[in-house]
Amino acid sequence: MVEMGEDIVILNEVYKIFGPQPRGRAFDLVRSGMGKNQVQAATDHVIGLNNVSFSVKKGEIFVVMGLSGSGKSTAIRTVNKLFDVTDGSVLVEGTDVQQLAGSALQAFRRTHMGMVFQHFALFPHRNVIDNVSYGLKVQKVDKRTREDAAMKALALVGLDTYAQSLPSELSGGMQQRVGLARALASDPEILLMDEAFSALDPLIRRQMQDEMMEIQGELRKTILFITHDLNEALRIGDRVCIMKDGAVVQIGTPEEILTQPATGYVAEFVQDVDQGRVIQVHEIMQPPAPLSLDTALADALTRTTERSGAFILDAFGVPTHLFTIEDGARASSMGTTELVSALRTDFERCKPEDRLNSVYAAAGRGLPIAVCDDAGVLVGNLDPRHIMEEMGRVENLIEDFEKEVFM
Ligand SMILES: Nc1ncnc2c1ncn2[C@@H]1O[C@H](COP(=O)(O)OP(=O)(O)OP(=O)(O)O)[C@@H](O)[C@H]1O
Ligand SMILES: [Mg+2]
Questions:
Q1: Each residue of 290-300: pLDDT tens digit?
Q2: Which domains, and CATH codes, for the chain?
Q3: Which of 138, 177, 304, 322 fits a 20 to 30 Å CA distance from 196?
Q4: Which of 338, 302, 335 is nearest to 321 (CA)?
Q5: Is the pLDDT of residue 10 over 80?
Q6: What are the residues facing 349 on neighbouring strands?
Q7: Mutate to test the pocket of ligand 1, among 37, 65, 74 (most ligand atoms within 8 A of CB)
Q8: What tens digit of pLDDT does each residue of 172-217 get?
Q9: Angstrom distance (rounded) from CA 186 to CA 109
Q10: What pLDDT, on the 0 to 100 scale, is given for residue 295?
Q11: Hey, is 379 helix, strand or coil?
């Protein structure tokens, strides 16, 4: 687990209204609870953000997810003050960014945040290393230092051998990596990424997500990541904030979003998601209830719960044999009274942090799976049927929701 620090980006009751009189009637109406569309119809003002509060903790990847027009980019633009807010406050590393202007604002942006956007322009006539070190050049960092920093950033994204190439000589995915290197070169605490991978085809996109998480494992930046893709959000986010019509609908870990969607709106999103990729084994495993080898078969049969079976452990707590009700009943019907004759050794093992998808095949054998820590010690029993149930649970939630709404 990532050690999460203090809140480093804080949006507090932020409103952003677009139009000639942002603090006029539109502001009153939205505060009285009127929705985005009605306010727009009544006042011709557009609600960008409607009472948005969230905070991003040091070292986490915080993902803002929502449909087109839900206010994601507007939210991120209040953080680097590309937009003034209509009301509320935005704090970045303790600084009220709304109070910054001119060169102080520029300096703050340059030293505290790196930005990566969907279509950021690399300078076409500058080579890769000059593109990456450009921000440092503007900060008047000497050539040697900034080229060292740029090479380090390029190495992080795996492009150090392309330092002398021109952007036009790189693929789309490679150009996006140069963009990431450019954001990393000045070693900012915060990375702002708005649909940074959205233009990439799915395979390259997954690669970029993996690489970013790898880099993040090393550097522990604070990342505010915007996407309209829930799969991407759940894959990379430590926490995910779901927005609709300028307002926050839910903030939670990927697991919370999947298993406890706050509203039907979230549930509808969630139905497209492959949950097996998100839910971890430890969330659904049972506490281990091991048997000792000298237990009588009849006792073992009464003490073992029907579904998750029981393991026999060695002196170190490592499972050696599996006992199931089915095997026990069969042995018993053949007249045996000894536990040993009902045991099997051909059981599957997994780790508590494994995702359900990775144990799916093992679960297909229908036998309980031993959940073991890195030392091989049993920490839980995984019933294969629980995996199937868990993967079906959100579907049921959605069905319930649809019944509520349509019946
Ligand atoms: N400069 C602007 N002037 C007027 N309205 C704007 C402006 N920028 C954004 N909006 C409006 O604010 C709302 C939120 O837009 P925003 O760009 O934040 O959405 P988004 O969630 O980033 O969408 P997308 O996924 O399409 O990028 C939209 O209704 C949009 O029309
Ligand atoms: Mg946007």
A1: 999 999 999 99
A2: 7-123+189-273 (3.40.50.300), 282-389 (3.10.580.10)
A3: 138
A4: 338
A5: yes
A6: 370
A7: 74
A8: 889 989 999 999 998 999 999 999 988 887 778 888 888 899 999 9
A9: 11
A10: 92
A11: strand
Cα torsion angle, 150, 155, 161, 162, sign: negative
- What is the number of the ligand closest to the CA of 194? 2
Residue nearest to atom 17 of ligand 1 (CA): 73
| 194 contact partners, CB below 8 Å, separation of at least 6 | 72, 73, 76, 115, 116, 117, 118, 226
Say how many C-beta atoms besides its own lie within 10 A of residue 332's C-beta.
Answer: 16
Q: Is a pLDDT exceeding 60 seen at residue 1?
A: no
Structure tokens given for 73: 């980019």
How much is the average pLDDT of 305-311? 78
310: phi then psi, degrees, rounded to nearest 5: -145, 145
The sign of the CA dihedral 105, 48, 14, 94 is negative
What is the C-alpha to C-alpha distance for residues 65 and 225, in angstroms, rounded to an integer?
A: 9
Structural tokens at position 72 = 């994601």
Residue 261 near residue 254, CB atoms below 8 Å:
no
Dist. CA 177–CA 210, nearest whole Å: 12
Task: Tell me the C-alpha distance between 132 and 149, whole Å.
Answer: 9
Mean pLDDT of 114-118: 86
> Which residue type does 180 have?
L
- CB neighbours of residue 117 within 10 Å: 19
The rounded distance, in Å, linking the Cα atoms of 135 and 139 is 6
Across 54-70, average pLDDT: 95
Span 119-147, average pLDDT: 90
198 vs 118, residue with greater confidence:
198
Three-state SS sequence of 141-206: CCHHHHHHHHHHHHHHCCCHHHCCCCHHHCCHHHHHHHHHHHHHHCCCCEEEEECCCCCCCHHHHH
Pick the residue whose CA is nearest to atom 14 on ligand 1: 71
The whole-angstrom separation of Cα 258 and Cα 199 is 26
Please choose from 21, 63, 72 the residue to mutate so as to test ligand 1's pocket, defined by most ligand atoms within 8 A of CB.
72
Q: What is the pTM of this model?
A: 0.73
Q: For residue 124, give the H/E element and its range.
A: none
Atom of ligand 1 nearest to the CA of 243: 21
